[in-house]
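Appendix B, example 12.
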Amino acid sequence: MSFIRLSFMSVTFGTIALLVFAFVHFKSSCRPHSAPAHLTDLDSLLDLMHEWERHSETEAETRSVRRVASELATAMADARAAQTSPPPASLTASNELSTEQAALRALSLSGTQCHVAWHTEHWGDPVVWGSAHHARSAAECCAACASHQQAAARGGLDKGANSTTCNVWVFCGDAARCGQRYQECWLKNLATLPLPAQPGANSMWTSGVVYPGDEWLKPYAQMKALTMHFTLGKVLVELLPDLAPRSVHELRRLAATLAGGECDGCKVYRVETNFLVQGVISHPGGYVGTPRQPNPQQKEVMERGLVCWAGCAGGPDFFVNLVDNAGFGDCHLCWGLIQDMALMDRIVNLPTRPKAKANEMTFLAQELRFNITLS
């Protein structure tokens, strides 16, 4: 039943109920002996109207009461049907997919990357057979694969850390197509990862890969730039692993985890003319902060365009240097360089909040949010 129809029914039902109560009030004022002491619900009201219908004094009055009672009964039946009818299959499937994706995203933020391949069956040697191993969702099956790896690392399974562990999971989540195999969760092992390219298919299975440790980040190690995506435009930041290797590694991890999605805590909030633009890079589950030491010595002159962690700390607050400056010392860890500063120069000139004192920090009147990607 569509939203528009439900809304129409609600308005119609409310109107009918109002008219009925007005009718009851009128009847009660004319024949007080017929009005009950309490009207507990619409069912009792309908019963009362049927009673009036049977005892009406004229044919016209009988028809009038019968018509109102019929309208009320129809409205009540439609309202009950709307409350008890299951949602359309398309809406149910959409909600299930949204819930599944939310669970997979939560796993990703907790450090377990599932690398999902929908409608695909990955091959591999079974380490846990799905016929006796069931999960309620693809996310739960992926988590089981990660847990299998962790059990071996703790010294469990058959050979402790030397056990053959899950790195590929396969789940059957389509109840209609899976039949008796519905919710089977197969944990498998492939000796060589990453997987070869999978041919296009419409399998009833959903599969994924759980790489041990940070192996899943290896493809991202070759990506040299981080792009900040503002509504005003894009800023390309050349990454500087030679100056801040651990910071660059964590920034790559966060950008890879987000996979082009929204960064909840990434924003620019402060500007100082001929000095800096300051912001923060943060997201639930993604913590890019790293200590200043151990890291290489920083540049003696902090050049225009360098992106560094603010306050001699390891992040997540950062600043973009607007002018060559030799007065910062060696405590600011710099992890990026912006060659094209046009957008940063534009941001410096945006409206700012009023200041009570001239020497107070200058904050943007409206913070600028951004997302991040790697290239």
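The first strand starts at residue 125 and ends at 128. The chain is about 35% helix and 20% strand.
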